[in-house]
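FAQ: What does a multi-protein file look like?

Like this. Sequence, then tokens, then the next protein.
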Amino acid sequence: MFQRKCIPFVLTALFAVQGASASVVLIATGGLSGTGVDFSTQTAGLLENGIVGNLLGGIGSGLAWAGGNTFIATPDRGPNATAYNPLVDNTASYIARFQTIQMVLTQNASGAALPYVLTPTLTATTLLSSATALTYGSGALGTGNVVTNGISTAYTLGSGVPALNAANNTNYFTGRSDNFNPLASSANPNDARLDPEAVRVSADGKSVFISDEYGPYIYQFDRATGQRIKSFTLPSNLAITKLSAIGATEISTNTVGRVTNKGMEGLAVTPDGKMLVGIMQAALEQDKKGSLRIVTVDIATGATHEYAYKLTTGSGVSEIVALNDHQFLVDERDGAGLGDGTTAVVKQLFKIDLANAVDVTSKSGDLTTFAVSKTLFLDVVAQLNANGIASNAIPAKLEGLAFGEDLMIGGVLQHSLYVANDNDFLPGTSGDNRFYVFGVSDADLANVGATYVAQSIATVPEPATVALMLAGLVLIGGMALRRRG
């Protein structure tokens, strides 16, 4: 199994002032260019909206620790902020994927503002697929006339089947909103449309769990190949029955289920790797606004339970990460900040506790009286402001949340907490793919009545390493054959 190690660093001055019970502190920042591309060269061609299909963007939608310096990041359904076809909400045939990133923390120079420098490096891109057939749109839902301000505009769209399906003999998931079966509910696992929003790594390190907004779904994918292993059956009250390629139409035609584009935004896995904990971004159609649902899934049995979360500050929830088997951090945020043309106000982490929580599976309406207890743990905006980062430079969509390796700073053990942004594939307005690392001490957690247990993850070779190993074996085998000959 992977053994956690501490990265030492002496920062006596900082902790002499703040003491052992200091508040959570920013220890490093870093980023990856928003104008770069990932390693999926097969998807490098232009999408329907004219954007390259392997633009490195949106990778902070979901972030997971995979042991050591390795992290997994999930971009969402792809670049859909560029207007080209309102009949599919400007979504394109961007193939769903996850990125593997090495996050290296190195000691900063003496007297520097932050104790560490974070250097992220992209090491692999893995496309997500299904061994069984998926339902794709014919293009008909994206073809027709739209009248705006008295002006009629004609739109046409081709099939939603990725060309790579035939080339690689598989079935890829994509972000196009018309890739669904209109005769089934949104929980249909055969739909090709996927909007990844959160990711966690399995205990054996060989697979990843990804939650989505379209279903909502929780799927398990093979970490080496990207092929789907399992689809978890979620409570039926999360799904909608009237599907549309246009989000506003979906919202207006359903009275039960998730709100379009506000499905299962966050996902946690308990440290023992036995339970998944998902959280919806917004209230279901049948619930009162501000009454969000938490869904737990036993990985082995598939058994589910639902609990209530009361939204108090932000406009929605973006992520949840485990502290231990019953306590979690939840990311509440507004939509303001860099990318929105405004200044960030609410980006806050709350500690919650599911111990003795009331199951609300059979309830609807106002769930706030059953809500789990919550305590403010970290005001991210205030902490970034205190380190010279202006509110208008703080990304509007801080969505990824993951613990990493432990650090020893000034003699105090710190649990590294990574926060990442979704830049919507718009580096020009939303900036690069950014990462902010905070140091969390046991004293910080004790202040809110919490403890931390690290996830135990087995070490497995990265896909790039596996490819090199296989290439080496092939080379050695070829040399052996030549010697025999």
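And here is the next protein:
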Amino acid sequence: MSTTAVNCDIKNIELADLGKKRIEWANQSMKVLQIIRKEFIKNQPLTGIRVSACLHVTAETANLAICLRDGGAEVVLCASNPLSTQDDVAASLVRDHNIPVFAIKGEDNETYYSHILAAIDHKPQITMDDGADLVSILHTKRTDALEGVIGGTEETTTGVIRLRAMAKEGVLKFPIVAVNDADTKHLFDNRYGTGQSTIDGIIRATNFLLAGSKFVVAGYGWCGRGLASRARGNGAEVIITEVDPTKALEAVMDGFRVMSMAEAAKIGDVFCTVTGNKSVLTKEHFALMKDGAIISNSGHFNVEIDIPALEAMSSSKRTTRNFVEEYSLKDGRKINLLGDGRLINLAAAEGHPASVMDMSFADQALSVEYMVRNSKKLEKTVYKVPEELDKRVAKLKLESMGIKIDRLTPEQEEYLAGWSEGT
């Protein structure tokens, strides 16, 4: 950690020059967030609001934090994953924008949770989460800080699942907007962002040729759809594994092979889990894999691959490349684990491109403003992003791309709203 005037825990403040350039580069592709930022600067809708954000500390996130700060918020940022922090970006946020950051790429679990506790020490009125770790700790270890919280937002599928479970049990203490459920988030960020950045991470880590390989995608939600599409685009033969019959059928209709993981394990060259569940790749599957198989994860937590089981089956392991651990199994086969089973798109690459995060973080910024205005009217449960905000983000994105679309005529609006006009 370098000493600065801002309370923080980062790797090295001297990395700030590079981080500043990366933040500026990302901002060029975040036209919608730029528009919202200008509105925030003018109207100051978040004046004096304390925001604790537990998000991936990337150049795109930096632009969101700057937007909130320029809207009057007092923002503190910590990492939502031990391997997703861009240390130069963290340094620039501290030095150039006076935003406290608690995040270091590769931090151990103890440091990771100490950083979340530091963000909670900010006594947030609004929480921003990517995976619900901050909210979870607020409801368990730091209930003393709950009193001042008026609401929060959640970025990702895994976090929304956790928060809905809390709401169902009646233990959620403040309202949350599920940003992940916005059409302008999951249809684009999850599909196109995860698809491209996961392929990017796997290739950066391994330099493996996907063309002609058998690429196994576990899970055919929006992230799985995007990943499967991009893997096929790189020439791979894509195999889908699923537990949901409807999603499995959809994958078949989309032209992919669908089979059980036990079957896929025998023939796959590259495996990537994107299910949001635990123990997707297990001892049973490792026992069937080819020598040299590559296994990775792009779901939020590193529980989708049973790493302890792989350790137990192995006689040794070594680091062969950055973010590649080669496990030598007792029968002589080798299995390559990428990025410690964590989000490979952020561990080995840079995460989603700025132009797609533009929409997700526009949703975030507008949802924070919505929560500040409406928290007193909301119950302690999980809400979708209001449709008018979602549609506004889509409209602004199209405009930023120079694309015009048609509008309904009054006659068409009347027809769609009525029932009497038939054949």
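Q: Is there any per-entry metadata?
A: Some entries carry free-text notes. For the entry above: The mean pLDDT is 96.
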